[in-house]
Amino acid sequence: MKEWIYFFDLCGTAVFALSGALAAGRHRMDPFGVIVLASVTAIGGGSIRDALLGTTPVFWIRDPNYIIVILATVLLALIFIRRPKKVPQYTLPVADAFGLALFTVIGAEKALNLGLSGMIAVVMGLITGVGGGIIRDILCRQIPMILRTEIYATASIFGGIGYTCAITWGLADKVALALAMISALVIRLAAIKWHLRLPAFELKKT
Amino acid sequence: MKEWIYFFDLCGTAVFALSGALAAGRHRMDPFGVIVLASVTAIGGGSIRDALLGTTPVFWIRDPNYIIVILATVLLALIFIRRPKKVPQYTLPVADAFGLALFTVIGAEKALNLGLSGMIAVVMGLITGVGGGIIRDILCRQIPMILRTEIYATASIFGGIGYTCAITWGLADKVALALAMISALVIRLAAIKWHLRLPAFELKKT
Amino acid sequence: MKEWIYFFDLCGTAVFALSGALAAGRHRMDPFGVIVLASVTAIGGGSIRDALLGTTPVFWIRDPNYIIVILATVLLALIFIRRPKKVPQYTLPVADAFGLALFTVIGAEKALNLGLSGMIAVVMGLITGVGGGIIRDILCRQIPMILRTEIYATASIFGGIGYTCAITWGLADKVALALAMISALVIRLAAIKWHLRLPAFELKKT
C-alpha cells in the first residue's frame, strides 16, 4: 500500500479510537474498558471487511502499528480530555464523520486493489466505514447512527461510488482519494449541522 | 451448485431482504439505510457461515447477483409498499419464516457438500437461517426473534436435521430439500399462527 | 495442542455454556433457544478469534467435541437446575469468571503458538475471553459485562499479559497457564465480591 494511504489509514484509526473513547467516557468505563471500546470502534469495520474477503490474518494482526495508534490515542484521551469533564456536543459525531469518510475510501481502495468489481468496492467501503461505529453503538446500547434518520450510510455510499468512479475514469489515486473523502465528509458534516435527511421509508407500526 | 438450489437461494435472499426493508420502514430509515438493513438481513447469516468455514471471499463477493437481488427487492419495496402505509401484521414474521426455512436448508447443503458431518451441517443451517434475522433485530433494537418464546430456532434445527437425514438416507436432493424446507416452514408458520411454544426453561430472576 | 490444555479448553466451554444456559433461563427460552444461547456464549469468542486469525474452518468445526460438550452441559442444566427455580445470585458471574480466565489463557496460547507477538497474544486472549459473553449479553439485551464498571476486561488483559510474560521468561507451559489463569480469576472474583472498580473515565453527558 502506498505510504500516504497508510498514513491516512492510521489517522482514521486514531479518529475512530477517539470516538470510541468518548463513547466509553459517557458510560464511565474504566481505562481497560476504554481501550476495548476504542479498539472495536477503530478496527471493527476493517476486521469484518478482511474476514469477509478472506485476507486473513486481518490487517491489525499483520501490522502492530494499528494497536499502538489506538493505545496512544486512548492514553492521550485519558490524560487530556479528562479534566474539563465536558466535551462539546458535536465532538463525537464529527470525529465519527472523519473516520467514516477516511475508512470508506480505504475500504473501497483495498477491494479495487484485489481486482474486485466497483459494486463490491462500494460495499467494502461501506462496511469499513460504518462497521466499527455500529459495533460501538450496539455495545453502548445507543441507537446505531446508521438507524437514525440523518444521512449516514448515504455519505459512505456516495464516497465509495465517488472513489470507484474516479479511479475507473483514470484519475490519479491521490486526487480520487481526496475528492471522495471530501465529498463523504461534506455530506456527513452538512447532515450533522443542518439535520439533513432523505425522505424516509415509513411504515405504520401495526 | 445446482441451478435450482441457486434459484432457491436467490429467492431466500429476496425474502430476507424484504423482511429487512420492512423492519427499516418501521424505523423510518432513509433509502440507503433501508439498503443496508435489507443487505445485512439477507446476507448476514451466510456471511457468518462462510467466514467460519473459511470459504472466503464469502459468497456474495464471488457472485454479484446476490447484491443485485437485494437492490431490486429494496427498489420494489420502496415503490410498492410505500403507498398503503400499512403492512398486515404478519407480513414480517411470515417473510422471515420463508427465509428461515430456505436458508436453513441451503446452509446445511453447503456444509454437506464440503464433506462435513451431519451435526455441523445442522449448525451451519441454523447459522445461515437465523444469523441475518438476529443482526437485523439487534440493529433495530428489537428483541431478537430467537429470544422470544415462540418456536424459532427449533424450526431451523428440525429443518436442518430433516435435510441431513434425508440426504444420508439417499433421498434425491430435490426431495430432501423440499421435505426439509416444508417441514421447517410448517413448524414456524404454525408457531406464528397459534403462538405455539415449547415448555420454557425458566429461572427466577434473583 | 497438549492434552491437558485441551481438557481445560473443554472445561471452559462447559462453564461458558452453563453461563449461556443460565442467561437463557432468565429469559424463559425454550430448550432449543437455550442450546443456541449456550453455544454462542461458549464458542463465540473463539470463533471470532479463529476468523480474525484465518485459522479456518474454526476450531469447533474441526473438532465435534466442543458441540458435544455444549449439548451435554445444556442437557444437564435443563435436568438439574430446573427444579429449585432459584439459582444463587452469584452463579452466573462466577461461572462467567471461570470461563473468562480459562479462555483468556487459551486464546493467548493459540496466538503464541502461531508465532505472533506478545501484544497480539494479549488481544487474542481478550477476544477469546470476553467475546462469547458479549454476544450473550447483546442477544439478551443485558448491559454487556464489559460495559459495567466492575473490573472485567482488566482481568482478561492482566491474565493475558501474565501468560505472555511467563512464557517469554521461559516458565513451563503448565506453570504459566496456572499462574495466569489464577491471577485473572482472583482479580475477577475479587471484583465481583467487593465490587472493585478502577477509577472511571467519565465525561458529562451533554
TrEMBL record, chains A, B, C:
Keyword Phosphoprotein: no
Predominant location category: membrane
Keywords in alphabetical order: Cell membrane, Membrane, Transmembrane, Transmembrane helix
Spans through the membrane: 6-25, 32-52, 64-81, 90-108, 114-139, 151-169, 175-196
Domain Glycine transporter: 7-80, 94-164
Pfam families in alphabetical order: Gly_transporter (PF03458)
Parts forming coiled coils: none
Cited InterPro entries: Gly_transporter (IPR005115)
Cellular localization per UniProt: Cell membrane
Cell membrane keyword on record: yes
Membrane topology recorded in Swiss-Prot or TrEMBL: Multi-pass membrane protein
GO-annotated cellular components: plasma membrane
Family statement: Belongs to the UPF0126 family.
PANTHER family assigned: INNER MEMBRANE PROTEIN, UPF0126 INNER MEMBRANE PROTEIN YADS-RELATED
The protein's name in its UniProt record: Trimeric intracellular cation channel family protein
